[in-house]
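Researcher: I'm preparing a figure for a lab meeting and need a structural model of a single chain. I don't have an experimental structure, so a prediction will have to do for now. The sequence is pasted below. Please return the structure as tokens so I can convert it later.
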Amino acid sequence: MRPLRYLIILLGSLLVAAGTNFFLVPYKILDGGIIGIALIINYLSGAKIGVAIILCSFPIFLLAWLKERDIFYNSVLGLLISSFLIELLGPLQYHFLYYFEFGSISSAIIGGFLMGTGLGIMLRFKASTGGTDLLAQFIKRYVPLNLGFIIFLTDFMIIGAGGFLISKETFFHSILTIISGGVATGLCTLETQNK
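Model: Understood. Here is the structure written out token by token.
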């Protein structure tokens, strides 16, 4: 089972990296979670997205290390591989856009769906990229709210901040991204939820 899990993390991370670089970044669209925060940092300062993801994730992973080692181990590999692949695919953005250009609305939907699928298949095999999913699990211990609702609230706050800092257009396109990503993640984890 372990080699399959590594393959799933690699595939999921590749989908996240492709969705980020080829569909969101060209139109300054945000995703929710830590990737969304890293994208805001990138759009405002030009900082590397993968590096920003790792730095922004550090406090959450430190908390996971101290409180829930299993969650830490299941997520740290996804974090590192997805951050690395985002950096690796970044220079290919120009070549992709030379052959394929979908427009901002289609890119928001397709990018969100790719990223949601990547996250969904990782969650299905008990792995993830960590980030606000981890944070939501800790918040749920102290606040009696649904886990999905906590994640939605954090995503909404992040894209709201991004819309305020970047543009209203960014906000509306980013809403499409998190809806599309949520649908894809839900479809990928549907069977496991029914068990």
